[in-house]
Amino acid sequence: PTRRSSDLSFELNYPAGVTRTTHVIQVYHYKNGWGSPLDSKYVDLGTDVITIKNYDQFSPFAVLALPSVALSFDPNFGPNGGEGSMTAKTAVKGATIDAPDCEYTSTGMVFTGWNTVKNPTETDPGIPYAVGDPITMSGNITLYAQWSTSVTISYYPGEGGTGEMTPQIEPIGKEITLKENEFERDNFIFVGWLDQDSGKLLS
What are phi and psi for residue 140, nearest 5 degrees? Predict the structure, then answer.
């Protein structure tokens, strides 16, 4: 007969020196050797409870508490300050974490990326990371938000045009690509943007 699988749940009892904040709890399944930990499709980690889904398919298994390292974030706000908060991410040493989106905002500034030093210089450039870049967690790492003074590019439909377009906010000095036209004007085709200050046609 077919063996029916069920979920197995149990509460963690931490040994001395082990806590959820200092260690990463992982569940491994033995199949031709201990390999990668089971993913969230099969394991639910509650606060102090582990549930192994479809238990008889994953026996035997081992629960390991591995020392964790932290990826922390510093807003490194500009002179005008800012707001926002970000929670540190934990991982097993040697694991990879993708650099996250910045959840801070700084008045009059635009976020340009992360760096492992607060103020990169020619002699101490640090390690820059763009959002989505992989970070190998060799130890505890702090990422400092990097900011640049921003410029706002506003778009207008011109005489007879209709529609709206969201302004474009970019760092000063950065070479950018203007947005595609979203305005409409009957019996006319779009040929480019006219710079209001210089009077030049920008294609």
Answer: -65, 135
pLDDT, the chain, mean? 90
Q: Which tops the pLDDT comparison, 128 or 3?
A: 128
pLDDT in tens, 61-70: 999 999 999 9
| Other beta carbons less than 10 A from residue 172's beta carbon | 9
What is the DSSP code (8-state) at residue 146?
E
Strand partners, 97: 135
Q: Are 39 and 91 in contact (CB under 8 A)?
A: no
Residue 115 · residue 45 · CB < 8 Å: no
Burial of 95 (0-12, 13-18, 19+ CB in 10 A): middle
At 1, the pLDDT band (50, 70, 90 cuts) reads: very low
Helix (H, G, I), strand (E, B) or coil at 17: coil
Round to whole Å and give the CA distance between 150 and 86: 22
DSSP 3-state assignment of 57? Answer: helix
Percent of all residues in the chain with a pLDDT value above 70, rounded to a whole number:
98
Strand partners, 187: none
H helix runs in the chain, sequence order: none
